[in-house]
Task: inverse folding
């Protein structure tokens, strides 16, 4: 009979190493499952917190809208008669100096009315992406408005006829 003797020492060592690796892998998998479970709980808590904060923000936005509505009413109410009456008062005034002052006041009232409207319009916007309809500045408007008050000192000093 012939006997073949094969040394299986290396094979046994390799199998034991594989068993060790398999045990480590199972331990790591259990650790991952534990971490996954903890992460799931944290995500649920974060979702609940986000929902609560979102509800708080929505309440604040509703309060802001209510405040803006009241503010708009409170600001527009006293301006409305001024905007309506200033042109008539200016038209009837005979004194040129007083008329000039009333015109300046009328321009300022109109400016305030426009400023209130634009401010309220901007305040009502809740979006992060707002498309603004901006007009380029028109210096001639300011020049025309203030020309009469600038002309008088120049005339008094003899610079203008």
Result:
């Amino acid at each position: 009979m012939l006997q073949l003797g094969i040394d299986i020492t290396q094979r046994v060592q390799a199998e034991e190493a594989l068993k060790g690796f398999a045990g480590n892998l199972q331990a790591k998998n259990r650790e991952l499952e534990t971490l996954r479970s903890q992460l799931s709980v944290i995500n649920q808590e974060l979702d609940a917190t986000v929902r609560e904060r979102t509800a708080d923000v929505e309440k604040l936005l509703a309060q802001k809208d209510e405040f803006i509505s009241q503010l708009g009413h409170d600001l527009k109410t006293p301006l409305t008669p001024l905007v309506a009456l200033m042109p008539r008062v200016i038209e009837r005034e005979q004194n040129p100096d007083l008329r000039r002052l009333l015109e300046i006041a009328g321009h300022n009232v109109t400016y305030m009315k426009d400023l209130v409207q634009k401010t309220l319009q901007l305040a009502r916007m809740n979006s992060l992406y707002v498309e603004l309809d901006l007009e380029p500045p028109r210096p001639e408007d300011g020049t025309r408005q203030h020309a009469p008050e600038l002309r008088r000192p120049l005339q008094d000093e003899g610079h203008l006829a």
Notes: Helices lie at 9-92, 96-124, 139-156. The mean pLDDT is 84. Residues 9-92 form the longest helix (84 residues).
